[in-house]
C-alpha cells in the first residue's frame, strides 16, 4: 500500500448496525479508500445489531484497558471484514454500554421508545461514547498497520482528537497521529451536563469557553472542532451554511473562526447497490439508452405494489425520508392536495414523528386511489420507488449532503429539491438556460414554502406533459452523472495527504 494509513472511527456501519446515512458512508468510503491504495481499518461499538447481522465475526486476542473516570474497564475486541471488501472492521465490546439495542422492545443504538410513544436518548450516552472514544485510541497499537490519520465522525467520536491531544500525544506511537473530524449533521452535537467531565479523566481547567465548555454544558462536537487537525462536512455548500446563524446551531461563530481547516466533500453513491442497470429489486433493469422504454415497466410495478391504478400517463411523485421537520414533509403535506389537482399520484416511504404518521395516514384514507403509503423502512421498496416514480420529492429545510437525490439521478427520476447543502451541489436546476445547454438534472427552488415547492412541481409536469423530449433529456443527463464514492474518496485521500505532509514538516523542522 502506498496511500495514507487511516483508522476510521464511527458509531455505525451499514451491514452491521445502522440508523441513517452515516452508516452508509462508513461502509462505502473505507471500501473506496482501499481501492485507491489506502491502508484503512474501521472501528465501531459491538452492538446487539452487530451480533445479529449475520456477518462472520471472530474474537481477537486483544483486551483493551479503557480508562473511564476513576475506573479502568476491560473490553474485548472482535473483528470482521466490511462486506464486499478486504477492509478490517473492529468492534469494541462492553455489554453494559452496547448490548441493549432491540427493535422489538423499541430500543435503538442511541434512543429508546418511551411509554408515551416518543423517543428519548439513553441517559448514559455521554458515558458510552466517552468510553468508545478512549477505546479507539487504545486500539491503535493493535492494528495491522500504523495509522497516520484517525478519521472520526459526528459527536459520538468527536472526543478522540481531545483525548489524543490531552492524554495520548506523549505516548510512544501516538505523536505522529493527526485527526480529521467529519460533521455529517451539525444539529446533533452531543451536549451534556458538566457532571460528565470527571468521566473523561481530563483536567477541570479545560472546561472553559475556548475548549470544552458551551454555555455551561459539555459539548462533544464543539470540543472535536477545536481539537481536530482538520474538519470537513459532507458538501461544500453545507460547509459554508454552517458558518451562518440559520444553519450553525450555535456553533457558527466557532466554525467561521476555524474555516482555514474546514472543507466540504460531497458523499458518494454506492453504485454497486444503486444502479438500475443491475438492480435485483426492480421490475425491469435499464440504462440511459433504454430508460424511455424500460422505466414504464418499473412505474407500473410501483403502482401495483401500492394498490394504485396502473396508468402510464399519470405522473407519480415519490418521497423516501425520515418523517421529520428537517426533510420538508410539512411542505409536502401542505402542497399535496395541489399535486392531486395536477393529476398526480404520490407514494411515501418512511418513518419518524407521530404527527406526520397520523397526517399521512389520514391523507391516504381520503385518497386511497391516489396516495400510497408505507410507514417504516423497506430496502426493496425504496429501490422500487426510485425506479418507478417520475419525480422524487426532497424539499429539505437543510440537507448536509443527502443520498436519495443521488439515487434519483442514477435512476432517471429527476429530484425536486430545495437549494440547500448537498442538494445545491448535486442537482442542476432545469431552467430554460440549463435545458438548452443540456446540463439540467432536476428541479430546484429556494424559498422554504409549500407554494415554491408546488410551483416547481408544476413546472416539472409542464415539461413531462408538453415537452417530453426535454423531460427525457433531463432524465438521461441525470443518469450519466458520476457521484461515485471513487470520486469522493480521491478528495479524502488528498485531504489525508495534506495532514500527513503537515506531520512530516513538523518532524523535519
From TrEMBL:
The metabolic or biological pathway listed in the UniProt record of this protein is:
Glycan biosynthesis; glycogen biosynthesis
HAMAP family, alphabetized: Glycogen_synth
Q: What is its EC number?
A: 2.4.1.21
| Amino acids binding ADP-alpha-D-glucose | 18
Name under which the protein is recorded: Glycogen synthase
Q: Which family does it belong to?
A: Belongs to the glycosyltransferase 1 family. Bacterial/plant glycogen synthase subfamily.
**Domain annotation Starch synthase catalytic: ranges:** 5-256
Q: Which function does this protein serve?
A: Synthesizes alpha-1,4-glucan chains using ADP-glucose.
Q: Where are the transmembrane segments?
A: none
- Residues annotated as domain Glycosyl transferase family: 307-467
Record's keyword terms, sorted: Glycogen biosynthesis, Glycosyltransferase, Transferase
**GO molecular function annotations of the record:** alpha-1,4-glucan glucosyltransferase (ADP-glucose donor) activity; alpha-1,4-glucan glucosyltransferase (UDP-glucose donor) activity
Keyword Glycosyltransferase on this protein?
Answer: yes
Its UniProt entry gives the catalysed reaction(s) as: [(1->4)-alpha-D-glucosyl](n) + ADP-alpha-D-glucose = [(1->4)-alpha-D-glucosyl](n+1) + ADP + H(+)
Task: State the superkingdom.
Answer: Bacteria
Q: Which GO terms describe its biological process?
A: glycogen biosynthetic process
Amino acid at each position: 500500500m502506498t496511500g495514507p494509513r487511516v483508522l476510521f472511527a464511527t458509531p455505525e456501519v451499514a451491514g452491521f448496525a445502522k440508523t441513517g446515512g452515516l452508516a452508509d458512508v462508513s461502509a462505502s468510503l473505507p471500501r473506496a479508500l482501499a481501492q485507491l491504495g489506502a491502508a484503512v481499518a474501521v472501528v465501531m461499538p459491538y452492538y446487539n445489531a452487530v451480533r445479529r447481522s449475520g456477518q462472520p465475526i471472530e474474537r481477537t486476542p486483544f483486551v483493551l484497558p479503557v480508562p473511564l473516570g476513576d475506573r479502568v474497564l476491560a473490553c474485548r475486541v472482535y473483528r470482521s471484514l466490511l462486506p464486499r471488501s478486504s477492509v478490517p472492521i473492529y468492534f469494541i465490546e462492553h455489554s453494559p454500554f452496547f448490548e441493549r439495542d432491540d427493535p422489538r422492545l423499541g430500543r435503538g443504538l442511541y434512543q429508546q421508545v418511551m411509554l408515551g410513544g416518543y423517543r428519548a436518548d439513553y441517559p448514559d450516552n455521554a458515558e458510552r461514547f466517552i468510553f468508545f472514544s478512549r477505546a479507539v485510541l487504545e486500539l491503535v497499537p493493535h492494528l495491522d498497520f500504523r495509522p497516520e490519520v484517525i478519521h472520526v465522525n459526528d459527536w459520538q467520536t468527536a472526543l478522540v482528537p481531545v483525548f489524543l491531544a490531552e492524554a495520548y500525544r506523549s505516548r510512544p506511537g501516538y505523536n505522529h497521529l493527526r485527526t480529521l473530524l467529519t460533521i455529517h449533521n451539525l444539529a446533533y452535537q452531543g451536549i451534556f451536563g458538566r457532571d460528565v467531565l470527571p468521566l473523561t479523566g481530563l483536567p477541570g481547567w479545560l472546561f472553559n469557553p475556548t475548549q470544552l465548555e458551551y454555555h455551561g454544558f459539555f459539548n462533544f462536537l464543539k470540543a472535536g472542532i477545536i481539537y481536530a487537525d482538520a474538519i470537513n462536512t459532507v458538501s461544500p455548500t453545507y460547509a459554508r451554511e454552517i458558518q451562518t446563524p440559520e444553519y450553525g446551531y450555535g456553533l457558527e461563530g466557532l466554525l467561521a473562526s476555524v474555516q482555514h481547516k474546514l472543507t466540504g466533500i460531497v458523499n458518494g453513491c454506492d453504485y454497486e447497490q444503486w444502479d438500475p442497470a443491475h438492480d435485483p429489486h426492480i421490475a425491469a433493469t435499464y440504462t440511459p439508452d433504454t430508460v424511455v422504454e424500460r422505466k414504464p415497466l418499473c412505474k407500473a410495478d410501483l403502482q401495483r405494489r401500492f394498490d394504485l391504478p396502473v396508468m402510464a400517463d399519470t405522473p407519480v411523485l415519490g418521497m423516501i425520508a425520515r418523517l421529520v421537520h428537517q426533510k420538508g414533509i410539512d411542505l409536502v403535506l401542505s402542497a399535496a392536495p395541489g399535486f392531486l389537482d395536477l393529476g398526480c399520484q404520490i407514494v411515501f416511504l418512511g418513518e419518524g414523528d407521530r404527527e406526520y404518521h397520523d397526517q399521512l395516514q389520514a391523507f391516504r384514507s381520503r385518497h386511497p386511489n391516489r396516495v400510497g403509503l408505507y410507514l417504516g423502512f423497506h430496502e426493496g421498496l425504496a429501490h422500487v420507488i426510485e425506479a418507478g416514480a417520475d419525480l422524487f420529492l426532497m424539499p429539505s429545510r437543510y440537507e448536509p449532503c443527502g443520498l436519495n437525490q443521488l439515487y434519483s439521478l442514477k435512476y432517471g427520476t429527476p429530484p425536486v429539491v430545495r437549494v440547500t447543502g448537498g442538494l445545491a451541489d448535486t442537482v442542476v436546476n432545469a431552467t430554460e438556460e440549463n435545458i438548452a445547454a443540456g446540463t439540467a438534472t432536476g428541479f430546484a427552488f429556494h424559498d422554504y414554502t409549500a407554494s415554491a415547492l408546488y410551483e416547481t412541481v408544476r413546472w416539472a409536469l409542464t415539461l413531462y406533459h408538453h415537452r417530453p423530449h426535454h423531460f427525457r433529456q433531463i432524465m438521461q443527463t441525470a443518469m450519466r452523472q458520476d457521484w461515485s464514492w471513487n470520486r469522493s474518496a480521491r478528495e479524502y485521500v488528498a485531504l489525508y495527504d495534506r495532514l500527513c505532509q503537515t506531520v512530516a514538516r513538523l518532524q523535519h523542522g
